[in-house]
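Example 3.2
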Amino acid sequence: MELAAFLIDFILHVDQHLQAFVQAYGAWVYALLFLIIFVETGLVVMPFLPGDSLLFVVGALCGAGLMDWTLAAGLMLAAAILGDQVNYSIGRYFGPKVFQWENSRFFNRNAFNQAHNFYERYGGITIIIARFMPFIRTFAPFVAGVAEMTRSKFTAYNVIGAVIWVIGLTAAGYWFGNLPWVKANLSKIIWALIIVPGLIAIFGAWRAARAEKARMAALS
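Structure, written as C-alpha cells:
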C-alpha cells in the first residue's frame, strides 16, 4: 500500500519529485530518467510508471535551466528504443515456448495467426500510436514479439515512435511547461495525459470489437 501511494504521488507530482531529486543528487537525475523510461517500456510487469507526464515535466525543467535538454532527451530516447527492443525480444523468446504445444490449453493457432497477420499489416502504426497510450505502450512491443512481427519492421517503427514520443513531449514541455497557466494547471495536464489516451484506446478497442463481431455475423 505504501509503495502504491508513493507511485501515485510520484505520478501526480512528478515535477516536485524530480526537482527535489535534482537539488539533492544533481546529475544522477539523468540515470534515474533512463531507468524509469527503460523499465516502463522494457518490462511488461511495470506498465504503471509515468511516461508522457515525465517527458513533459523533464522538458519544463530543462526550459527552466535545471537540466540539460540534449542530454536528458538523448538518454530517454535511448532508453525508450532499448526498452521496446528488450520487450519485443522477451515476447519473441517466450511466445513460441509457451505456445509450441498446439494441443495445450494455452495455444490457439487461429488467434496466433490473426495476431501475426495484424502486426505484419498494422504493427508499425500500432507501435507508434502505442507510445502515447499508458499501459498499451508497455504491452504492444511484447505482443509484437509474441506475434512474431518481423524484427526489422518492428525496429524501424520502434525508433520512429520513440523519436516522436520523446522529442515531441520534451520539446512541448521545454517551450510551454513554464508558462504561468501551464504551471498553475500542471496537475490537471498530468491527469489529461493519463486519462485521455486511455479513453481513446478503450474507444478504439470497442470499435474494433464491434467491427469484428459484425464481420463474423456477416460470414455466418
